[in-house]
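[Automated response] Your request has been received and processed.

Submitted sequence:
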Amino acid sequence: MSYILLTGSSGAIGKEIKKFLLRKKENILELDLLGHPSVDATNEKSVKEFFEIHKNKNIAKIINCIGIPDAIPLTAKTILDIDINYFKKMIDVNLNSIFLIIKECYRNNKGILNNIINISSIYSVVSPRLDLYNDKIKNPAYTASKHGLVGLTKHLAVILAKDNIKINCISPGGVKETINDQCFLDNYKKHIPLNDITTIKEIETSIQYLFSMNNITGQNIVIAGGYSII
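Generated structure:
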C-alpha cells in the first residue's frame, strides 16, 4: 500500500484537495500545523519526528499546499513598514519548509517516492497589480517565496531525475472557491483574457494529469486564464 503525503491540508486549497483525494479513495497522510500530531514544518526536529512516526508507510507522492498568505498590516505604505522578521517567516514557511519536507521524505522513501507537486501561485510568475488591492503595497516576501518555489522545483527536478522522481509546480490565479469579495472578483476578471476565475476543479484536474505523466518534470503549470500574459 502506498500513500500520498498532503501538506497544508487544513488550508483553503489543501482542504479541497483532501476532499478530492478522498473521493478518489487515495491513502492520505497529512502534515499540518493543525494536524494530529501537529507538525511545525519550519522545524527540522518536528519534521523528522513526523517521518519517524510514519517510517513504515510507503509515501509515493507528495502534494505540498503548505504556506501562509501575503497579508501585511493595513497601515503599511512603503517597504519601510514591512518587518524583516515577518519577511523571514514567510520565506521559512512558504519555501524552506517545502525543501525540508521533500528532503526528509526522500530520505525515508527513496525508491518509493516518484512524484511531487508543489502548489504555488500566480505570483510565482508575476508581481501583484496594486490597483486590485487599493494600492496597498502587498508583501514582497510572498512573491519572493513563490518565485523561489518554482526555482526550487526546477533545481530539484534535475537532482531527483536520477531516482525517477518527477517534481512540478501548479500555480493558480485567484481561486473562485476561496474568494468571498465579489467586487474584487469583478475587478480581477478584467485582467483575465479568458474572463474566468480559476476553480478548485481545475487544480484537481492538473494534479491528476501530472500524476499520470511519466515524462514531465521541472515545469510550472499556470492556471490563470491568461492573467500572466498581459
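Summary generated for your ticket: Helices lie at 12-23, 44-53, 84-109, 140-160, 182-189, 200-212. Residues 2-229 form a domain with the Rossmann fold fold (CATH 3.40.50.720).
If you did not submit this request, please reply to this message.
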